[in-house]
Write a structure and sequence with these properties.
Helices cover 28% and strands 36% of the residues. It is of the alpha+beta class and 332 residues long. A six-stranded mixed sheet has the order 2-1-6-5-4-3. Strand 7 and strand 8 form a beta hairpin. Helix 1 packs antiparallel against helix 2 and helix 2 crosses helix 3. It is globular. The termini are far apart.
Length: 332
């Protein structure tokens, strides 16, 4: 049986210390848990950062100053060996940062009201330290809550998404390894099935998605949510129709524990908009797309899927800036 207890304890202790820390203490807290050569990847406009001090100054301090008394509300917490590099152990947390929006963030005007910021955070733990992190946040959803709608069209309903239907995503104790392998296999098979169709610019045959997805599946994406496989397939057809020359690049990590699995790429895919996606015009400009996926398996099918796509970064590569602070040449 796999044993990830030490790695989980380190990450949970770090989460607790960071939550309790005042903004000006974020650097000290991160330094005590991060490796000396700490590498950080995150959503635009933060992107690649190095070292605890730089990460704290660029991301944690502005976020904690904007969301007063910020809490981490976890829905899923798992660990596992990276399928792409089995010697690596990663921990993943998914949920929402929650606080009172009392200070501007990335130029987004504060509301003074309660707000949530959906996140997925990955931590590579090595030699009792966090060697690398990937922190991806849904800033499109955050802006919508603040009354700012940067996109002309959403793919589905947009709201504060729930965690797993069975409320069983917090795996503080290690899960059955056989269940973890079954989840990882299902996710891998699904990705391998769709990759050739994506490369050709086609969609899988009608109904083929049902080999991997439950009929009443739920998809929670950056551009809205969809319920039932038929609604999910509609969104996938629009995605494939309006984004051409799609090329899968790869993943940094992919792992599973129990009924839950996840991955992220840097980037995940490259595509070219031909017009229509999210109500936007085409530009024939190839752009990288960072995609994070978290899955819940029930039986032999995927029942729920939480995805964060870095739409602001994808748009920035095409010359469209959605954050007021970035348009003015500032970061936060």
């Amino acid at each position: 049986m796999a044993d990830f207890q030490r790695e989980k304890q380190i990450v949970l202790a770090y989460f607790d210390a960071m939550e309790q820390a005042a903004p000006e203490e974020a650097g000290r807290v991160l330094s005590s848990y991060a490796a000396e050569n700490y590498d950080w990847k995150g959503s635009y406009p933060f992107r690649s950062l190095h070292g605890a001090a730089e990460v704290a100054d660029a991301f944690w301090v502005p976020l904690k100053e904007a969301l007063s008394r910020m809490q981490r509300r976890q829905d899923i917490f798992i660990a596992g060996h990276n399928a792409l590099c089995p010697s690596e152990i990663w921990v993943m947390s998914m949920g929402n940062f929650m606080g009172n929006f009392t200070g501007d963030f990335l130029g987004i005007r504060h509301t003074g009201k309660l707000i949530t910021l959906r996140y997925v955070e990955f931590a590579h733990v090595e030699h009792e330290k966090i060697r690398a992190s990937g922190i991806f946040v849904d800033l499109i959803g955050f802006m919508a809550q603040a009354g700012v709608n940067p996109l002309p069209k959403m793919e589905g309903a947009c709201f504060v998404y729930p965690g797993p239907r069975e409320h069983d995503g917090l795996l503080y104790e290690d899960a059955d390894e056989a269940e973890s392998k079954a989840t990882l296999q299902l996710i891998g098979d699904m990705c391998n099935e769709t990759a050739p169709w994506d490369a050709r610019g086609d969609a899988p045959p009608q109904g083929r998605e049902s080999a991997y997805w439950a009929e009443d599946m739920l998809w929670y994406g950056t551009t809205g949510a969809a319920y039932t496989i038929s609604e999910f397939e509609k969104g996938q057809r629009d995605f494939r129709r309006t984004l051409c020359d799609r090329k899968f690049v790869g993943h940094v990590t992919r792992f599973a524990e129990g009924n839950f699995g996840c991955f992220f790429g840097w980037p995940s895919i490259i595509n070219t908009p031909v017009g229509g996606y999210l109500g936007l015009p085409g530009g024939r400009c190839p752009a990288e797309m960072q995609v994070v996926e978290v899955y819940a398996r029930r039986g032999d099918k995927i029942a729920e899927n939480w995805a964060i796509t870095d739409i602001p970064y994808w748009l920035a590569q095409q010359g469209l800036e959605v954050f007021p602070a970035c348009a003015e040449g500032k970061r936060a």
